[in-house]
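Lecture notes, part 5. Sequence design as translation. It can be helpful to think of inverse folding as translation between two languages: the language of shapes and the language of residues. The source text, in structure tokens, appears below.
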């Protein structure tokens, strides 16, 4: 095995052009409680990861750090190399992706937040940080906006006594109005979740007939203890560029991704109660889930690659194990530091 050159992080030269900025509310987000920058930051990482980590660390908050933006700004590496480096940085504890539910102008959609830490963190720290970030986001969403205080009623001044109206005439008899017929029944949570998919993700727009056909499959998810947010995540995450048949695509995901049956079913959340707004996203494939289900920022399929059948695949698996061993050594040194 070749010995890595443990030199300090390669510093990216200052560029005359401005950094690519992400849309407001997106882009890089620096984690809290980081160590001050030093010359030996990222020194235990391989050369490619060390270079990209040094570049990302110098980006200001709000700068675009997606794969395409970084590949355009770093001419040494292409999109595949940048994606592999970001995955390794997530395993090393510097990077986490999280999906956040935001509501703007009456529409609810899911966006990806990117959190960066110059100091390598373990899974427990990232889990606590994302829980705190989720509580803060939920509190901001439920708290009243500043300056939106209820207007103080104007003082009432005594008015002049009004003249007594003339005695009313005979009250006309109004015929009894016909009361509307009661509704047959409210739509189920499964039906409402399917009906909202088209507004959240236009590629999954379903008709009323489609929702009625898929409603029994979606109802099975609710009997296993999931809520509307969980089902919406599972159906809308990691979509292909084009969905030819929305009903066929949703039916396949309802059958293939149904969660396991738990011993107990949690009670449904009361109206107005805070909901979880952040879910960790796999650095490799983008699958969302709780932080404890994605250690090192990777889901189970991405952590356990398929069995190799060729020598080339075996070589790749050996390199993967070497990277994991290097990361384990790095974490051990950080704990004893």
């Amino acid at each position: 095995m070749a010995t890595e050159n443990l030199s300090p992080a390669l510093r990216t030269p200052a560029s005359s052009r401005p950094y690519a900025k992400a849309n407001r509310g997106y882009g890089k987000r620096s984690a809290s409680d980081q160590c001050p920058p030093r010359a030996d930051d990222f020194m235990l990482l391989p050369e490619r990861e060390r270079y990209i980590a040094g570049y990302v660390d110098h980006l200001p908050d709000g700068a675009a750090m997606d794969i395409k933006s970084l590949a355009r700004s770093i001419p040494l590496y292409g999109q595949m190399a940048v994606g592999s480096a970001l995955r390794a940085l997530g395993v090393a504890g510097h990077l986490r992706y999280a999906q956040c539910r935001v509501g703007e102008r009456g529409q609810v959609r899911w966006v990806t937040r990117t959190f960066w830490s110059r100091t390598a963190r373990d899974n427990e720290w990232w889990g606590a940080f994302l829980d705190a970030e989720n509580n803060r986001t939920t509190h901001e969403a439920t708290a009243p906006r500043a300056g939106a205080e209820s207007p103080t009623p104007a003082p009432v001044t005594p008015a002049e006594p009004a003249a007594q109206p003339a005695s009313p005439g005979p009250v006309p008899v109004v015929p009894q109005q016909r009361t509307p017929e009661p509704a047959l029944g409210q739509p189920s949570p499964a039906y409402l979740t399917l009906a909202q998919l088209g507004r959240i993700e236009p590629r999954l727009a379903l008709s009323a007939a489609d929702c009625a056909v898929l409603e029994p499959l979606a109802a099975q998810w609710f009997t296993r203890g999931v809520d509307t947010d969980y089902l919406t995540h599972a159906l809308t995450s990691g979509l292909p560029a084009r969905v030819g048949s929305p009903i066929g695509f949703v039916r396949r995901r309802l059958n293939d991704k149904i969660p396991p049956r738990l011993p107990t079913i949690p009670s449904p959340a009361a109206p107005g109660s805070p909901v979880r707004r952040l879910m960790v996203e796999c650095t490799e494939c983008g699958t969302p889930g709780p932080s404890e289900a994605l250690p090192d920022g990777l889901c189970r399929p991405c952590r356990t690659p398929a069995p190799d059948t060729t020598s080339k695949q075996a070589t790749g698996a050996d390199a993967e194990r070497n990277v994991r061993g290097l990361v384990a050594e790095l974490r051990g040194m950080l704990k004893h530091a």
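The translated text above is only one of many valid answers, since several sequences can fold into similar shapes. The first helix runs from residue 47 to 58.
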